[in-house]
Write a structure and sequence with these properties.
Blueprint lengths: L2 H10 L13 E4 L4 H4 L10 E4 L7 E4 L5 E3 H12 L2 H13 L4 H4 L4 H9 L18 E2 L4 H9 L4 H6 L3 E3 L4 E7 L5 E8 L7 E4 L20 E5 L2 H13 L2 E5 L7 H10 L3 E3 L5 H13 L6 E3 L13 H9 L5
Parallel strand pairs: 10-11, 10-12, 12-13
Antiparallel strand pairs: 1-2, 2-3, 3-4, 5-6, 6-7, 7-8, 8-9
Helix pairs in contact: 3-4
Length: 326
């Protein structure tokens, strides 16, 4: 974020920006949280330092109340204390736009990245060199990621099979996304801490243009289960694979036109395993239209209050045997 963008943010936090001075990429301001976190309730002697991010997100630290973090979290804290829902939305807006892009983070790959971007045409996905994945740590060398995957019910063997990786600085589990032929077209990063944006779309690939997990589905699978998220896929995968069943995810509770084309090309029965909520019901309606003509299209009704990522193996087996809505 540049200085002009920072001034806009600080003004919303009630900070006078008319006399901001940049020194070695930093500015000092009165702490916007002083009213709530400083003993005096004020900060007349500016205690907060902000480092303006160019290739990194803007970060702050207050030497009085010891609060520190990224700019979006400062706005988020301000929204919390002032009970201002609009500022809460603004914090999320900053989070989305102030994250460093991969081309900035890995400057040595900037030339290549620009080449990939030029390939991004509406009807195509950019093919990304596989060596970019070396910028992320393989799961077997990242104990924190291993622990996190265990809590999500992902068995260790899947980390190798799906080449799950760890973005240490952002503390995200990274899932490579491939075309059915194996070409790398993107990656999805899932945060392992609750206070950040849940998912990050590396390379800005078009989610509706491919199906997570389709590359791993055997050519002789007897049917394909369609779930919403990647963790839903990983949870069902070992049980499904043992039964020669494929599992794919659509990233949202809706089958796109291109995803429908990819599914129909496999010419096997298709089961929709979306959550039992309103979004899942809407997704089923869309799937019926876009997969029209698929005579063996069914919707599986999951146990009440559960999504695929929460099922036990016994519940999975029961769902396979439960009569489904055609």
């Amino acid at each position: 974020m540049d200085i002009n963008g920072l001034k806009i943010v600080l003004s919303k936090l009630g900070v006078d920006t008319s006399n901001l001075h940049i020194r070695k990429g930093r500015v000092k301001i009165p702490c916007p949280l002083a009213k709530w976190l400083h003993a005096s309730g004020t900060d007349n002697n500016p205690s907060m330092s902000l480092k303006i991010g160019v290739s990194e997100s803007t970060v702050f630290k207050c030497f009085a109340c010891k609060e520190k973090g990224k700019l979006w979290s400062l706005v988020d804290s301000y929204a919390h204390f002032s009970n201002d829902p609009e500022m809460k939305k603004y914090a999320l807006h900053i989070l989305e736009h102030d994250q460093p892009r991969l081309s900035e983070k890995f400057s040595d790959l900037e030339t290549e990245f620009q080449g990939w971007i030029k390939q991004l045409e509406p009807e195509h996905l950019a093919v990304i060199p596989d060596h970019i994945l070396r910028k992320f740590i393989p799961a077997k060398f990242a104990p924190e990621l291993q622990d996190y995957l265990t809590t999500r019910g992902v068995i260790p063997a899947l980390a190798d099979e799906f080449d799950i990786r760890y973005h240490e600085e952002w503390r995200r589990a990274v899932f490579p996304v491939r075309r059915p032929n194996g070409d790398l077209v993107g990656a999805v990063g899932r945060t392992m801490v609750n206070h950040e944006k849940k998912y990050f779309n590396y390379f800005e690939f078009r989610t509706g243009m491919t199906l997570g997990g389709l590359y791993h589905c055997a050519n002789d699978c007897t049917k394909i289960l369609v779930v919403e998220g990647y963790f839903d896929l990983l949870r069902l995968w070992p049980w499904a694979k043992a039964r020669k069943i494929g599992v794919v995810c659509t990233w949202t509770a809706e089958v796109s036109e291109e995803q429908a084309r990819l599914l129909l090309a496999r010419d096997v029965p298709i089961q929709i395993w979306y959550d039992g909520d309103l979004a899942g019901a809407k997704g089923w309606s869309v799937a019926q239209k876009r997969l029209a003509g698929k005579t063996l299209l069914k919707r599986v009704m999951l146990p009440l209050g559960k999504d695929p990522g929460e099922l036990t193996e016994k519940e999975f087996e029961e769902c396979l045997d439960i009569p489904m809505f055609a």
